[in-house]
Design brief:
Blueprint: E1 8-13, E2 22-23, E3 40-41, E4 46-47, E5 57-65, E6 72-79
Parallel strand pairs: 1-6
Antiparallel strand pairs: 2-4, 3-5, 5-6
């Protein structure tokens, strides 16, 4: 029998953009499709801290942490600049 270990997923805001995007853990839907680096996404758990509405974000980086238990992928987001 083969065991497939699916990594845990965490979300983080790029350090220079802290305060521009908030994360609401209770709204995160773990079965959602995982994005790739550079993707533009809108998720209900990544919101504008002032309006509390979902905002478009770009995946700036995906950090793989196999040393963590469980194995964890961290998706680092930054607010999307829709003008570019």
């Amino acid at each position: 029998m083969t065991t497939i270990n699916t990594p845990a997923v965490k979300w983080a805001v790029y350090p220079g953009d802290e305060g521009k995007v908030s994360y609401i853990e209770e709204l995160w839907d773990s079965p959602c499709t995982l994005p790739s680096e550079g993707n533009l996404i809108i998720r209900p758990f990544l919101i504008d801290p002032e309006t509390r509405q979902p905002i478009p974000v770009r995946i700036a980086e995906i950090r793989d942490h196999p040393e963590m238990q469980p194995h964890t992928l961290v998706f680092v987001v930054t607010p999307a600049d829709l003008n570019h």
